[in-house]
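#dry-run=false #mode=assembly
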Amino acid sequence: MMEKFKEWYEKRHDYAQEWKNKTGGKVVGYFCTYVPEEILYAAGVLPVRILGSHEPQDVTEPHIFGMYCPFCRDCLAQGLKGKYDYLDGIMIAQSCLHIRQTYTSWKIHKPVDFSYYLPMPNNVQSKRSLPYLKGELEVFKKAVEEWTGKTITDDDLNKGIEIMNTSRALTRKLYDLRKESNPPLSGLEAMYAVVASQMVDKKDYNETLQELLEKLPRRQLENSSKIRLMILGSEDDDTEFVEMVESLGAIFVVDDHCTGSRYFWNEVSSNGNPLEAIAARYVERVPCPSKDWPERTRIEHIKKLAQDWKVQGAVVIQQKFCDPHELDIPAIIKSLKEEGIPAQFLEFDVTVPIGQFKTRVEAFLEMLGEEDLY
Amino acid sequence: MEKEYWRWPESRWTAPDIDWKSGDIISAGVDVGSVSSQAVVMVDGQLFCYSNIRTGSDSPESAQKAMDKALEETGSTLKDVHYTVGTGYGRVNVPFADRAITEIACHARGANFMYGPSIRTILDMGGQDCKAIHCDNKGKVTNFLMNDKCAAGTGRGMEVFADLLSIPIEEMGSLSFKVEEEPEPVSSTCVVFAKSEAVGLLRKGWPKEKVLAAYSSAMAHRVVELLERIGIEKEFAVTGGIAKNEGVVKRIEAELSIKALEPQHDTQIAGALGGALFAKALVEKQRGLR
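#status=ok
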């Protein structure tokens, strides 16, 4: 029923190339979910998120530090190996230095028509960040106009907002179904869907998901006796890991990842000046930990997710060497514990040590399990 | 052939006063670790016999060998065992096991039996990994931490040092205290880095006891970090092969200012013992007794 998303995920490059052939349009690869896709959609450009392949590689060593996170190295490897040669442009919005290095190195070694660094403010809790970002979005819009040779009107922007918002609302409905005591989809399927949404034209994604949402509530799976888990942390599209955990009698019902719920959680409110509305959405969205200070607002959000999705345990997983996440994780684990939710902490590398992770996850599930062998 | 300093003695044991034939439930646990394998057989929840052997390259074969050795001269065979739980990193490769349970759950359960229900913190120092486990009075895990993919602070590291320093592994603990003054720990516990650091110290003219002291205290320091992350609650015990090395254990105790409980049995059998106890509970479940 949900195979389409998996197919898009696995054949992301074929999809983008076919899209180009079909539409004659331009494709921009982006590195961080603070990139305002609304403006790219308004210009008729297809934004695709650049992600890694989870395969060992030996091409990034001369270009990026070994102690930078595995995700940013894996992404750069995709560029250097020519997997994304069809891209017409690349862009990033300021989040962390590791992924910015990926962008910079990519730009040097794989020059493209259009490359753009959007200085998304880090201190989103400051009142001055909204007018600042609005100004930067104006500059960005102009750059896109110059590149494409096409003026972006307010009407175009509103259409860009609409397609993004529709996609967000639909994905939220998909997540809401996971609240049920017998969720009609697995965490793996949800991951394929939400990650695929970052790889394909939202028009295709929205249509497919809309159809699916009509059928899904009637789908009967045997998920009611499984241990309900939440997964949270840094970038994560590690389907192998999710599949392994879900083969052990658990089900992921919700997440807090930038590849998952953080990507689509907040919508753009559609009144007023469109650029200002877009800016407000990115300033106010559930933040990446690199922007979640001085106050840690994300913790309350995570606690609410755990409560609403009736979570029994949490897998806290981060990319190795991801400092922003590392800084937040002890506080998150402590707060979850206070809510009676035990957490298991793991660290991602390009490939995960699936055997050792399996032992830890199994032991964690045995700990959460009700079985009385004592 | 050169002397194999790392080689630790395999062992087996049988309870002198248990008649297995009159037992209701014969349960077993087999722990196939990365370095050693153990089999424990219990009769009605009483420790009946056990073995402790080196793991070979083939997990199913090691499991079989451990079981054969445990049952040797007891008059009983595998056919007499009602239920077997496999555990350890080779837990799914125990051909005669009825079920697999992780070594983390099994170690806690086994330690609860070995040290009594007051045990709360268990440090399992295994062949290739190291775990800090918290459990309740029934031996159920309440929290745990495991080291990352690295053999630092583990049995394999000690084996490498036995060979490097030409000291039989069983003597390493006591020899590590034959120093006038406790040296600074080596700066790395990574087996490879620590080994090259040790070679450097030997060249500098350090006696091997002093190098050993420096390595043992680095190893102790590393696991203390793991324990501090999880928090230490009394009572505390060390299981696994390194538990037999007083050079490491006493240094851990000194850093923590807490004494580890004295083991009554081979500290390497904790996992297999926990497996055998779970196996008993599972038989009782099958028979409708639980």
